[in-house]
Design a protein that fits this description.
The chain starts with 5 loop residues before the first helix and ends with a strand. The chain is built from 6 helices and 35 strands. The N terminus is likely disordered. With 706 residues, the chain is mainly β. Keywords: Cell outer membrane, Membrane, Receptor, Signal, TonB box, Transmembrane, Transmembrane beta strand, Transport.
Length: 706
C-alpha cells in the first residue's frame, strides 16, 4: 500500500479545509474567460515556448512577484537566448518531473533516469555527470536550489506547485548572478496575486502504480495575501526496486507595507523516499529494461531526502528604481545507501540584494541591474558500510564548507530606439574546505577567483521581432562530488581540480509574424578545463578530471505555426510545433582523444507536436525523435541506438474551470536508452552505465480550478 506520512496528510487536509474560505476575498485573481490562443507568442518579442494548451485567467502580480505576462515581457528584453514556460502549458500532462516542464524548450536537454531523478543539461553543461545536477543554476523564486558548492538535485521542485519557469541559457543568467556554462533556470511558484484561480484540486494517475493528489488555496485579504500548495505522490516505477513516495507542502505569505514596499515569506517542506534500480549493461537495458541490478537489491539502495526551506523577498520601489533583497536558509538531510551509506545533514543560507533602474544618458535610454550574492553551506558528511541498506562501520566523518561572494552588473544602453548595447560582468570568490575527522591528512581546501565579462547587441526591427548577438565568459567551480573522489578502498580523497572556463558566442532571433512564431539560436563555446567524468566501477561514484580544450556548439530551434483555423467550425485551429536541438560537442586536439565527440549527449533531439483545439477540447499527437544515440565512451567505440517515441494527449477544459485529460507516452512500447553514465574506453572497462527508458504508459487526470 502507499505510505503517506502523517505530516503530509495533515497538510493536505488543511489545504482542503481552506477551500471553504470565501473565494470573493481574492479580489485580484478572478478567473477570466478562457481563450483558444496557444500562448506561444511572447509579449513584446519575448521568447517562444511550444505550449499546446489554453491559458486561463492571470493575476496582476505584485511588487515582489510579477505576473506571468510581466515576467515574459521582462524576459524578452534579455540580450541573448532565453525561454519561458507557463505552467498552464503542461497542465494536461502527468507533470511529475522537470522534463514535463522544460521538454519543449530548445537547447535544454532533459531526460528521466527513474522517479524524479533526471539529467538536466543546457548546451552540454555537466554532460558527463552521471547523477544529479552540475553546470546549471536552478532557482526557486529567485533563491538557489543548488547547494552552496554548486551541486544540486531536483527533488525539491514539484511541477504542480509552479506558476511559470524562466530559462536563461549560458551567460544570459547573469541577471540572477549566474555565470555557469549552462546558465540559470528560475522556477517561480504562484502567489495569491498570480495563481490561475483561488482554489485548485487535482488528481491524476495511471501506469506503474502512479497516483498524485494536489491541492492549492490562496486568498488576498487587504494588504495581506497567502497561498499554500501540497502534493502527495506515489509510484511503483517502471523498473523493479524503483518505488517512489513524494510529499511536499510549500507556500508564501505576502504583506504590502505601503504601495512602494512589500515583503514576502516563503516556506516549504519536501520529503522524498526513492528506491534505486541501478544502471544496466546496454544489452540488459534493451532486453530486460525493468530489471534492477543485484548490487542495488543486496544493498537496498535508496535516496531519502528531507528538505526544509524558508526564504524572504522584500521589494522597495524607489524614485530611481527598485531594490529587491532575497534571503534564505535551507536545511537538507540525506540518507543514501549506495556502494556505502552516505549520511549527510547540511545548511545552505544566503543574502542577495539586487537593484534595477532606468535613466537617460545623453538623451539615450539606459537600463541597469546591479546585484550581489553572499552564500554559504556547511555539511556534516558521513559514510558507513552498507549492510542491506543500514549503517555498518563508519568509514568517513567529514565536514564540507563552501563560501561564495559574488558581485554582478548588467547594463543595456539603447543607442537607437530599436538597438541596445549590453555590457556586463561578474566577479567571484568561491572557497571550498574539506576536513576529514578520521584522517586529517586528507584535509584540503581550494579558493577560486573569477571575472566573467559579457557584451552584446539587441535589435528590434519590429515590436514583435528581435535579433541578438553576444559574447560571454563562464566559469564553473567544482563541487564536493568532484573534489572528494572515492578511492579504491571506499574512502574519500580531496582532489584540487581546476575550474572550468569558457567563452561563448551566440547569435539568434525570436518573434512572431502572423500565425508563425520562432526562437532560433546558434552558439559556440570554447572551453578550457571542462569537468568530465568517467565511471570506474558501476557501484562507485564517477571520478572527475579536467579536460584540456573542448568545443560545444550547436543550434537551438523552436517554432510554431497555426496551419489552419475555422476547420470544422468557427474558432477551432490546427497548430504545428517543432523543437530541434543540435549538439556538436568535441575534444579539440586532445592528446588522448584527438577530436572525438564527447560522450553523454545525442547529436540531435527533436520533438514535434500537432494540436487540434476547439472550444476547450484539444488533441495533440507528439513525436520525440533522437536519430542517433549518444556515445557512451570518450574513445567513441560504443554508441547507444537512436529512438522514436509516439505520444498522445487529449483533454477537455470546461468553462467552469474543470479539466479532464489523458496523457499517453511511448505508445508503441519502444525499448530505448534514456540516459547513460560515461566511461573512458568501452573496450577496456565495465559498461553497466545505461538507464532504460520507460515503457508504454497511460495517465489520466482531472483538475478543478475555481
Amino acid at each position: 500500500m502507499t505510505r503517506i506520512q502523517t505530516g503530509g496528510a495533515l497538510a493536505l487536509a488543511s489545504l482542503v479545509a481552506l477551500q471553504t474560505l470565501p473565494a470573493a476575498a481574492q479580489t485580484t485573481n478572478a478567473q477570466t474567460t478562457k481563450t483558444q490562443a496557444t500562448n506561444a507568442q511572447a509579449a513584446s518579442g519575448g521568447s517562444v515556448t511550444l505550449d499546446t494548451l489554453t491559458v486561463t485567467g492571470q493575476g496582476k502580480g505584485s511588487l515582489t512577484v510579477p505576473s506571468a505576462e510581466q515576467a515574459r515581457e521582462d524576459l524578452g528584453k534579455t540580450v541573448g537566448s532565453v525561454g519561458f514556460v507557463d505552467s498552464e502549458s503542461y497542465k494536461g500532462t502527468l507533470s511529475n518531473t522537470l522534463r514535463d516542464v522544460l521538454g519543449n524548450v530548445p537547447g535544454v536537454f532533459v531526460e528521466n533516469r527513474y522517479g524524479q531523478e533526471l539529467r538536466l543539461s543546457v548546451r552540454g553543461s555537466g554532460m558527463a555527470r552521471g547523477y544529479h545536477l552540475r553546470g546549471v543554476e536552478l532557482l526557486q523564486d529567485g533563491v538557489p536550489v543548488n547547494a552552496a558548492d554548486g551541486s544540486g538535485d531536483f527533488y525539491q521542485i514539484d511541477p504542480l506547485s509552479l506558476r511559470y519557469a524562466e530559462v536563461f541559457k549560458g551567460g544570459n543568467g547573469l541577471a540572477y548572478g549566474s555565470s555557469t556554462l549552462g546558465g540559470a533556470i528560475n522556477m517561480v511558484t504562484p502567489t495569491a496575486h498570480t495563481a490561475v484561480a483561488p482554489n485548485l484540486l487535482r488528481v491524476d494517475g495511471g501506469s506503474f502504480g502512479t497516483l498524485r493528489t494536489t491541492a492549492q488555496a490562496s486568498r488576498v485579504l487587504g494588504d495581506l495575501d497567502f497561498l499554500i500548495n501540497g502534493t502527495l505522490s506515489h509510484s511503483d516505477g517502471h523498473r523493479d526496486h524503483a518505488r517512489q513516495q513524494y510529499e511536499q507542502v510549500n507556500g508564501n505569505i505576502g504583506y504590502r507595507v505601503s504601495p512602494d514596499v512589500e515583503t514576502r515569506f516563503y516556506f516549504g517542506e519536501y520529503v522524498t523516499h526513492q528506491k534505486l534500480p541501478g544502471s544496466l549493461s546496454l544489452s540488459e537495458a534493451l532486453n530486460r529494461p525493468t530489471m534492477a541490478t543485484a548490487a542495488v537489491l543486496s544493498g537496498d539502495q535508496a535516496r531519502d531526502v528531507w528538505t526544509q526551506r524558508i526564504a524572504n523577498r522584500t521589494s522597495v520601489k524607489l524614485e530611481s528604481g527598485q531594490l529587491d533583497v532575497a534571503s534564505w536558509a535551507i536545511r537538507k538531510k540525506l540518507f543514501h545507501p549506495i556502494f556505502q551509506v552516505i549520511d549527510q545533514t547540511g545548511w545552505t543560507y544566503g543574502l542577495a540584494p539586487r537593484y534595477t533602474t532606468s535613466f537617460t544618458v545623453g538623451g539615450l535610454r539606459d537600463e541597469l541591474v546591479v546585484g550581489a550574492r553572499l552564500t554559504a553551506g556547511n555539511t556534516k558528511a558521513r559514510q558507513f558500510v552498507n549492510l542491506n541498506g543500514s549503517r555498518g562501520a563508519q568509514t568517513v566523518d567529514s565536514r564540507q564548507n563552501a563560501y561564495n561572494a559574488e558581485l554582478f552588473a548588467e547594463n543595456r544602453l539603447y543607442v537607437l530606439p530599436t538597438l541596445a548595447v549590453m555590457t556586463g560582468a561578474k566577479a567571484l570568490r568561491d572557497l571550498r574546505t574539506y576536513s576529514d575527522l578520521l584522517s586529517p591528512s586528507k584535509n584540503g581546501d581550494r579558493a577560486y577567483y573569477g571575472f566573467n565579462p559579457k557584451i552584446g547587441l539587441l535589435w528590434e526591427p519590429k515590436p514583435t521581432i528581435q535579433a541578438f548577438v553576444n559574447l560571454s565568459r563562464s566559469q564553473d567551480v567544482p563541487d564536493f562530488s568532484d573534489l572528494n573522489q572515492t578511492q579504491a578502498n571506499g574512502t574519500l580523497g580531496f582532489v584540487p581540480l581546476q575550474p572550468q572556463r569558457a567563452w561563448t558566442a551566440e547569435i539568434g532571433t525570436r518573434g512572431e509574424i502572423g500565425r508563425v512564431s520562432w526562437d532560433v539560436t546558434a552558439y559556440r563555446s570554447v572551453i578550457r578545463g571542462e569537468m568530465l567524468q568517467f565511471v570506474t566501477n558501476s557501484n562507485v561514484p564517477a571520478a572527475t578530471f579536467n579536460a584540456d580544450r573542448t568545443i560545444h556548439q550547436g543550434l537551438e530551434i523552436g517554432g510554431k505555426a497555426v496551419l489552419a483555423a475555422d476547420l470544422a467550425q468557427k474558432g477551432d485551429s490546427l497548430t504545428f510545433g517543432q523543437m530541434w536541438t543540435y549538439n556538436d560537442f568535441t575534444f579539440d586536439g586532445d592528446r588522448q582523444y584527438g577530436n572525438n565527440t564527447l560522450a553523454g549527449m545525442p547529436r540531435h533531439v527533436l520533438r514535434s507536436t500537432l494540436t487540434y483545439s476547439n472550444d476547450g477540447f484539444y488533441l495533440t499527437p507528439t513525436v520525440d525523435w533522437v536519430p542517433q544515440g549518444a556515445w557512451a565512451d570518450q574513445a567513441n567505440t560504443l554508441k547507444v541506438p537512436g529512438h522514436t517515441l509516439l505520444g498522445l494527449q487529449v483533454g477537455k477544459e470546461f468553462s467552469n474551470g474543470l479539466l479532464i485529460f489523458i496523457d499517453g507516452r511511448n505508445l508503441t512500447n519502444k525499448r530505448y536508452i534514456s540516459d547513460i553514465g560515461t566511461v573512458t574506453d568501452a573496450r577496456r572497462v565495465a559498461t553497466s552505465i545505461f538507464y532504460p527508458g520507460e515503457g508504454r504508459a497511460v495517465y489520466a487526470g482531472v483538475r478543478a480550478a475555481f
